[in-house]
Specification:
The structure is a single chain. With 302 residues, this protein is an alpha/beta fold. The chain has three domains: 2-88, Winged helix-like DNA-binding domain superfamily/Winged helix DNA-binding domain (Arc Repressor Mutant, subunit A, Orthogonal Bundle); 95-162 and 263-301, 3-Layer(aba) Sandwich (D-Maltodextrin-Binding Protein, domain 2); 164-261, 3-Layer(aba) Sandwich (D-Maltodextrin-Binding Protein, domain 2), CATH 3.40.190. Helices cover 41% and strands 20% of the residues. It has helices at residues 9-21, 24-31, 35-49, 65-88, 102-107, 113-119, 171-174, 198-202, 221-229, 239-247, 277-301; strands spanning 54-57, 60-63, 95-100, 124-129, 143-148, 155-168, 190-191, 217-218, 235-238, 259-269. α8 links the parallel β7 and β8 (217-218). The longest helix is centred in the last third of the chain and has 25 residues, at 277-301. The chain is elongated.
Length: 302
């Protein structure tokens, strides 16, 4: 096994992850590093091995014939190594790595996570904000907080809460909105030209999404919320995005109705991390915090 001395394990992991996921971006997210750092690892590995393993094309990286031949064996080898490490690894780990949707992280999680740190000083959190769905069983990520209609990849995924939407706008603008018909008179803030959530929220009512005015468009829902705060129009937000701004009076909700989108928030783990007590502690804390938020949302609708 002297060949193993010639190339670091991190380089083999890079080759395996890129071949399996198909892109530098997804592989980098899975390994918890940047795409640039992963590209450097691959280049060094190819230099040591003396041949290219991927063909660089405009559409991405295409595995060479030799890469296609060895990639499945590399995957099996990494799975076996991961299994061995899980058996001998100490049951308690001081570091938790969490993959979470960026907007959920910036608008809800980050404002509450100090309490977890205070209650669990021996657990360090590493938060990776990403929209990529990472295969947790092939990564160093312990927890994936997912948003979607299903939990996707992850063992024993647990639903945290359903996603619901409702219109928000500046307090001044909200005073002009007494009925649904008033919505025809104000700009509708869009995310990438989308009217996300409006169809379901308006379902069963006389007003249709096609009757709404056009308004400013932003490529990020967080920016759309900021635009609503500044009086640029009305935006269809969801609770974890807008709840703190609503509580602080930065936006107002002119209508009580909240509509489910069909999506939900999920708590996903890897086969190994599911056994860690620190993961259980974080899940319990997260569920408690969400319960507090849900109680506030319910009271606001009463």
């Amino acid at each position: 096994m002297q060949n193993l001395n010639a190339i670091p394990l991190s380089a083999l992991r890079a080759i395996e992850a890129i071949a399996r996921t198909g892109t530098l971006g997804r592989a980098a997210n899975e390994l918890g590093i940047t795409a640039g750092a992963l590209s450097q690892r691959l280049a060094k590995a190819e230099a040591v091995l003396g041949q290219s393993l991927f063909i660089r094309e405009a559409s991405g990286l295409k595995p060479t014939a030799i890469c296609l031949q060895v990639a499945p064996r590399l995957t099996r080898a990494m799975q076996e190594l991961s299994s061995v490490i899980s058996e001998i690894r100490a049951p308690e780990e001081g570091m938790l790595t969490i993959s979470v949707a960026p907007i959920f992280a910036s608008r809800w999680l980050i404002w509450r996570i100090k309490r977890f740190n205070q209650e669990n000083p021996n657990i360090s959190l590493r938060v990776l904000p990403t929209a990529e769905v990472v295969d947790l069983d092939y990564s160093e990520i312990d927890i994936g907080i997912r948003v979607g209609e299903d939990p996707s990849i992850g063992s024993g995924a647990v639903k945290l809460l359903d996603q619901r939407v409702f219109p928000v706008c500046s307090p001044d603008l909200a005073q002009r909105l007494g009925t649904l018909d008033d919505l025809r008179t104000v700009p509708i803030i869009r995310e990438n030209e989308l009217l996300y959530g409006w169809k379901s929220w308006l379902s069963g009512q006389d007003l249709k999404a096609v009757d709404l005015q056009s308004g400013p468009t932003y490529a990020d829902a967080s920016l759309c919320l900021d635009a609503a705060m500044t009086g640029q129009g009305i935006f269809m937000a969801w609770e974890t995005l807008a709840c703190d701004a609503l509580e602080q009076g930065h936006v107002a909700s002119p209508f009580d109705r909240r509509s489910p989108t069909g999506a939900a928030y999920w708590f996903a783990t890897s086969q190994h991390s599911a056994r860690k007590s620190s993961v259980s502690k974080f899940r319990q804390w997260l569920e408690t915090e969400l319960h507090c938020s849900i109680n506030y949302w319910s009271a606001g609708m009463a």
